[in-house]
Amino acid sequence: MLAPDPSSPPVPATADLPPGRLDEQLRLAGAGQVLVAGDLTELAGIAERAAEPLLVCAPDLLAHPAVLRHLATNPLPGSVALVLADPPGPGQAAVAEERGQLTGAGPEVDPGTAPLTFGGALRVPPADLPALAAAAHAAHAAEGRRAGLFGPDRLVAELTRGDTTIFTQRVRLLVAHRPTDRAEASAALAEIAAVDSDAAELRLAVKERDDFFTTYFVSTWSPRVTRLAARLGLTPTGVTAISVLMAIAAAVLFGVGGRPALVTGAVLLYLGFVLDCVDGQLARYTRQFSPWGGWLDTMADRAKEYLVYAGLAVGVDRADLGNGWTLAIAAMVLQTARHMTDTWYGALHDEAARRPAAPGGTAGPGGSAGGGVGDRLGRVSSQALARPGSLVYWLKRTIVFPIGERWALIAITVALFNPLVSLVSVLVWGGLAAAYTLLLRTLRARSMRVAVLPGVDTALHRDDGPLARWIGAATRRLPGRPGPLPFALLATAAAGTLLLAALAGVAGLRGWVVATVLVMLLAALPSAVGHTGALDWLVPAALRAAEYLFVIAIDVAAGVPGPVTFALLFVLALRHYDLTARLEKRERAPLLAAAGLGWDGRVLLLAVPVVAGWAAAGTAALAGYLFVILAVGAIAGWATPGPAEERNR
User: What is the pTM of this model?
Assistant: First the structure.
């Protein structure tokens, strides 16, 4: 459903346009029926009755049809506004943008510091329609105070004053303008006619900003593969499946060993990564988006990487170069913990972009207020990222060890050297990247002084089980208790101590296991209180690290084979990636989330077979059980239609 709102006075440029041109563009966008709202009050009525997405357009917008099609099919899970680099004209709202979100619109925004303009088009999903209706009523009532803005611009100004998250879509390679006279309108129409639509859309399928290796060694030629895949009728999911098969083949070759196999595996790994980029490009090129496809892509990426680690571990063992499984387990645990902090810091940063900071904090993630270390780091980071292509920009993008660089490092080291060098290289660079990002993000988060966990199902994303939830509820009102982060870090320290004791061969480890479980369960005490501290976004990652270290420790103590330990940690990692993928895409919780027992239940369940003397069987059984729960929950959950639950707001 589309509702152009022509409540603003028509500009002279529209007088000579072919009749119905805007309607034609909207139909080409593929978003449904065109409804015309004569004023903001009528638009509010449409929003109150609507049950499908609404596209609100200003009558002075001249845009290539693909611009509106992209806006109508944008996969972001919220409202999306078109923004232009043109300076605002009469009646048009200047807008401020931070991390791809609108943070302000209207007279309050200084065009000198935010030279962006609302593009005159806003896509609103069903979940935001009540907010749209309320904003339309408010904008109509505020007409006297905001007489300088036309209808849709007043509407966006009101929306940004509330709690609605509005993502932004910029115009790249295509054309969109809001002309203010006939000459500008004629120029805009000429620009639109000159666009090579297919070439532009193919290039638009490539991410605007990516990592160094992907930018220069993949995206320079992957669009040709994308076009070929589209002509062959392949779907993004099909390309993802081929990418997974290539990664599995590479892992097998790494395990086989021998120079020909290692080199061939490295080539397959690179080509598999190219296809991993192509599946997203194909989705953007063909506009085939779905929550299922996005979730599958995230899960496949992590599964491929960790299966490659397993292949390298087998190769190390077969070549008698050392204990490959220990290195593979360490690499997987490190990378998973890093990804957990990435997810929650990203959510925290988005929250800081949307909301005012607490007293004494910065006004946003860029550090626009205050003079602390975190503020200065924010300004330096923003300045570096504002210079794409510069040496500082690429250093900042590369030092964090993104996926492209990880694939490249593995492929190069395994082809030139051996699997042992690959795993050690991943651990060394990954460890340095983890230390760098954790230190800087901690300093910046302290300056932001915003909280993100209270806006979600905290127990779900902590992965608390029934016991932890009961302990938290029973002790919720205990006075003088520290916040959740110290308890989570205490659990991590206890599991780490148990691991050191197991590695040292300390006697009486069964008693150590029992004591460690009791200490770890203390992390359940604050599970029911608000996680509002400046650093509480680290709690989920700390609990993940504690559980993974505990699994490793008891398996070392009990002599569980490395592949069995790896299998359990692999399934646990996929479970936690499932949670974060759903968080990022604002999808409902896994169908069988409670059947996963929670970190507390799994710790207790693992301690029993260790004390009883059959740890290997217990570890394997738990891995198998959790895999079945994950698979059944994913298949049944995604096959069951239902509205997405916006869990991160």
Answer: 0.88
